[in-house]
């Protein structure tokens, strides 16, 4: 980057690494990458078979009572909020990378789920949602008749 020519001045090496970090962070925010990454919070995985789907989401530090889950047609919607951390009187942030505030994820499912049978569990910061497939949406074997 533009700082590479100034590396010979080792009188404050921590300053240079911090300026590099700030330049990278500013570039990321101005390019729109910061907004996109927060829109994809929390990170999810989705597994499926012919009977159900499992969605897992990383939500460390978020109380399950601060999250809502719903299924509308082929959409899984979950939202919640992470409350600000309080380090105590007189404490000021030196660095803050964990987002706080509200989040909302809408995930298009590969098939319709039976919303009456959806189950959710929270364990060690991971939310797991099991979405059984509607019986009428399950694949059926078609027998071939011959004459």
Give a verbal description of the structure:
- This protein has 147 residues and is α+β, with helices and mostly antiparallel strands.
- It has two domains: 13-40, no CATH class; 43-83 and 102-137, Immunoglobulin-like (Sandwich).
- It is built from two helices and seven strands; from the N terminus they run ααβββββββ.
- It has helices at 13-30, 33-39; strands at 44-48, 52-58, 67-72, 75-82, 101-108, 119-123, 126-132.
- The strands form two sheets. It has a four-stranded antiparallel sheet, with no helix packed on it. It has a three-stranded antiparallel sheet with strand order 3-4-5, with no helix packed on it.
- Strand 6 and strand 7 (126-132) form a beta hairpin.
- It is elongated, with a radius of gyration of 23 Å.
The total beta strand count reads 7
Largest sheet: 4 strands, antiparallel
Number of helices: 2
The CATH top-level class label of the largest domain: Mainly Beta
Quickly count the domains.
2
Binned, the helix content reads 10-25%
Strand order of the biggest β-sheet:
1-2-7-6
Distance between the termini: 76 Å
Which runs of at least 5 residues are low in confidence (pLDDT < 50)?
A: 33-37
Q: What radius of gyration results from the CA coordinates?
A: 23 Å
